[in-house]
Design a protein that fits this description.
There is one protein chain. The protein has a two-stranded antiparallel sheet. α1 crosses α3 and α3 packs across α5. The radius of gyration is 20 Å and the shape is rod-shaped. The chain has 6 helices and 2 strands. By secondary structure, it is mainly α.
Length: 130
């Protein structure tokens, strides 16, 4: 059961970081095109790709661990809330879980405290005093 939840969290994290993955692949493709167009040796390309793979592994791995830590802490907080403030009570949930979005959407998005996207974006609500 815990493995399934971890896999869902990993998939949600990768969906959130899809732009980073696409950007890295585009950069690598551009670098390969330059190497091919100028008829340069491929060893520097493979070296750069290997370094990029290790740095991406560290970036995504550490980011995912931080995200997972926030999600599990938020779940622990939800379990300690009184029954009238849990997700089932919609009236008590709205003021606790509404988060303003200052991005291009410019509106207010409502999320459950246990959702990975919210937990990764704002962190642990208990630690932030929210």
């Amino acid at each position: 059961m815990e493995e399934i939840r971890g896999m869902r969290l990993w998939q949600a994290y990768l969906r959130k970081r899809r732009g980073d993955l696409v950007g890295a692949a585009a950069f690598l493709g551009l670098f390969a095109a330059v190497m091919w167009l100028y008829r340069l040796p491929w060893e520097p390309f493979f070296y750069a790709a290997l370094l990029g793979a290790f740095s991406a592994l560290a970036y995504f791995g550490l980011g995912f661990l931080r995200c997972a830590r926030h999600v599990y802490r938020a779940d622990g907080l939800r379990e300690t809330l009184p029954p009238n403030q849990r997700e089932g009570n919609q009236q008590a949930r709205a003021p606790l879980a509404t988060v303003g979005s200052g991005g291009s959407r410019g509106g207010a998005l409502e999320h459950s405290v246990s959702e990975p996207g919210l937990a990764c974006r704002v962190g642990n609500p208990a630690a932030n005093g929210k």
